[in-house]
């Protein structure tokens, strides 16, 4: 499978480093806003084709799958461009700016029989499946509540500061606690309450969110661009609790009983970066003729966008492109 990367920023570098180490996937092309940037990126990673526009990348008949690594504000037009050119697409989170954009793109992919999936890597990593199996085994009993946080010192990052780039903590880092909660409790969310601190441009610098699920469990979530957090996830049951180290890139988890005694520890198996699992899932789905990956089906991406739409509406945060 020949893979292209649309965008040449930091996360594109992580993906390129990952794909270089994979078998059966060739990092074949890169498209950037300028030919200079594309050629520099291509030289760094030994990529065959460097394009100074996204249109040229989309038009290359040799490219099978394109990874979209541009700001949130541009996911919708870039994914649409690729689908129009018959490309399978793996698009970074947050998938789009809002749920309506997501619905339109997924419908387009399904009509064209093209794969389109969200690159929220925590949905694809093997340790997440293990975590769900342990939770569902009943070792900590019935889950009644959970907490998760993800905060980084990133308030100065240009793409995150401004509404015209769909900035803010929610779409960039808040999406991880939300996905964490909804992967653990898969019943419908019946109530959402939240609050946020806005920056000088009018996007959220930090936020707190409480979700209530249909089964009665609650999730208390926090994300911020102003501080550094421990990135912990905690799952509380009536027979014990689970501590997850780093919900953004799980480093393992520990199960405790009601006496605070460690029952079992689950380490993470060796991996390249963790990004390889979403690429492998895409390759498998393409070979099977699917338009979605079972690890992150279209309905789940839409559900995450709907939750974030509801939260932003509560804050009064609307992006210029909406």
Summarize the structure in words:
- With 322 residues, the chain is an alpha/beta fold.
- It has 10 helices and 14 strands.
- The strands form 2 sheets. It has an 8-stranded mixed beta sheet with strand order 8-9-10-7-11-12-13-14, with helices on one face.
- The protein is globular and about 60 Å long.
- The model has no long low-confidence stretch (mean pLDDT 97).
Keyword list:
alpha/beta, 26% strand, 10 helices, 322 residues, six-stranded parallel β-sheet, eight-stranded mixed β-sheet
Number of strands: 14
Query: Order of strands across the widest beta sheet?
Result: 8-9-10-7-11-12-13-14
Largest sheet: 8 strands, mixed
First CA to last CA: what distance? 35 Å
Task: Report mean pLDDT, rounded to a whole number.
Answer: 97
Order of helices and strands: EHEHEHEHEHEHEHHEEEEEEEHH
Instruction: Round the Cα radius of gyration to an integer and report it.
Output: 20 Å
Portion of residues in beta strands equals 25-35%
How many alpha or pi helices? 10
Shape: globular
- Indicate the percent of residues in helices: 25-40%
């Amino acid at each position: 499978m020949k893979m292209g990367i649309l965008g040449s920023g930091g996360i594109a570098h992580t993906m390129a480093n990952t794909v270089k180490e994979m078998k059966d996937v060739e990092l074949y092309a890169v498209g950037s806003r300028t030919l200079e940037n594309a050629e520099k990126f291509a030289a760094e990673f030994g990529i065959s084709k460097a394009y100074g526009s996204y249109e040229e990348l989309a038009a290359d008949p040799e490219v099978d799958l394109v990874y979209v690594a541009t700001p949130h504000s541009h996911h919708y037009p870039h994914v649409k461009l690729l689908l129009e050119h018959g490309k399978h697409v793996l698009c970074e989170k947050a998938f789009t700016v809002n749920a309506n954009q997501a619905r339109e793109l997924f419908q387009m992919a399904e009509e064209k029989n093209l794969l389109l999936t969200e690159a929220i890597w925590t949905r694809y990593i093997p340790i997440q499946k293990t975590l769900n199996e342990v939770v569902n085994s009943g070792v900590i009993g019935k889950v009644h509540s959970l907490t998760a946080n993800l905060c980084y010192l990133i308030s100065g990052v240009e793409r995150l500061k401004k509404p015209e780039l769909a900035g803010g903590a929610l779409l960039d880092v808040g999406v991880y606690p939300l996905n964490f909660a909804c992967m653990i409790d898969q019943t419908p969310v019946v109530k959402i309450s939240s609050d946020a601190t806005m920056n000088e441009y009018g996007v959220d610098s930090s936020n707190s969110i409480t979700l209530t699920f249909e089964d009665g469990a609650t999730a208390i979530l926090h994300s911020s661009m102003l501080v550094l957090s421990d990135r912990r996830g905690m799952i509380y049951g009536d027979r014990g609790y689970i501590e997850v180290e780093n919900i953004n890139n799980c480093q393992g988890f520990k199960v405790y009983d009601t006496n605070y005694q460690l029952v079992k520890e689950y380490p993470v198996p060796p991996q390249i970066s963790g990004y390889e699992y979403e690429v492998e899932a895409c390759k498998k789905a393409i070979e099977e003729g699917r338009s979605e990956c079972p690890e992150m089906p279209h309905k789940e991406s839409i559900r995450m966008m709907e939750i974030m739409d509801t939260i932003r509406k509560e804050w009064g945060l609307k992006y210029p492109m909406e």
